[in-house]
Amino acid sequence: MRIGIHSRSLLRSPRKGLGNYLHFLFEEMIRAGQKRPFFLYHHAGGAGDFPSDRVTGRTISEFPWRFHGGEQFWLPLSAVRDRIDLLHCPANTLPVIQPCPTVVTVHDMILTMFDEGESRNELFYWRKVMPVALRKAARIITVSEWSRRDVIRLLGVPEEKVRTIHSGVNPFFVPLPPESLAEARAKHGLPGNYLFVLGASSPRKNIRRAVEAFIRMKREGFDPKLVMTVSDAAFRTELEAMLESARIQGEVVFLPHVDDETLRVAYGGASLFLYPSLYEGFGFPVLEAMACGTAVVVSDAAALPEVAGEAALYIHPTETESLIEAVGRLCDDSRLRRELRLKGLQRASSFSWASAASKTLDVYEDCLG
User: Fold this and answer.
1) Helix (H) or strand (E) holding 69
2) How far is CA 277 from the centre of its chain?
3) Domains and their CATH numbers in the chain
4) What distance in Å separates the CA atoms of residue 277 and residue 316, rounded to the nearest whole number?
5) What is the residue-wise DSSP string for 36-59?
6) pLDDT in tens, 178-228
7) Where are the extended beta strands (E) located within 156-277?
8) Lowest-confidence pick of 7-16, 176-185, 266-275, 339-348
9) What pTM was estimated for this model as a whole?
10) What angle separates helix 207-219 from helix 233-245, to the nearest 10 degrees?
């Protein structure tokens, strides 16, 4: 059985969410030791981090055509050329023309429901072209039951075609020894007592509400500072204006877009990690923070309770009072923080890439059975 994988997200640098998903999933597939050959399709070619006689990197021509011309035309042609038995597209999209059975991983249906600032072409591709392609797929993998329900509801596909396979957690995220953590915090200029938030300009991430809540808490004598990652310059300027108006700009530390090493330090050194998102198809940062031994305050929205389970303190993300109450409670209760840290470590350990890979290979076998 010759398996083709559209690996555009895998070979991008730096690797981000979808790239990490495919990297760790494929790593475990190779480790499983099965003899099937894999073909990785990407506009840059190459086999990435997987030098193996079972892995062949293929270059597909992705001319700058509208509507993802490379994916729609050159990818299926490449699959025909290589006599691919099954094609897996792991990053939400796939060709309409499918010369062999296809599996697609849909991480979320965000672009169907939210305006994330994409171009009209991108929205047309997702909202008009993708429903046709997704309905033709032999199997659809989703990373949460929440996303599975969204796919069935919004696309009208049969339930038996959609399989939930939870993602794993990046094994790099582990608790650091206290001495190493203290040294790393000093290196990055992190304060001794702080909340950690991943900042993003999308309204769906609900960061403005988090900052508004922090301002209110500071006015009431709240001690911890706030550490945020903010890569969008315009959004950072907006947040700085809010803080300056409240005269607490010195209480917030902004980190630029950071690598995994810096993230691990920021997670591990925080009194708590706050994730107030309005919608997530999964929620990698929640697991990463838990794996680093950090107590988590998270929204009770979408797939986040499915991921966090009983190892987090929940908020209603549209209610500022709920956020303030949860953060204040956790900061004041060291016993609760310790309890959530221990539960979080256990919860994160239950999300395994080896399990995800095994179940994905089962889907392949099911398609070709």
Assistant:
1) helix 69-69
2) 12
3) 3-168+352-368 (3.40.50.2000), 178-349 (3.40.50.2000)
4) 10
5) --EEEEETT-S-TT---TTEEEEE
6) 999 999 999 999 998 999 999 888 899 999 999 999 999 999 999 999 999
7) 162-164, 194-198, 225-229, 252-255, 272-275
8) 7-16
9) 0.93
10) 20
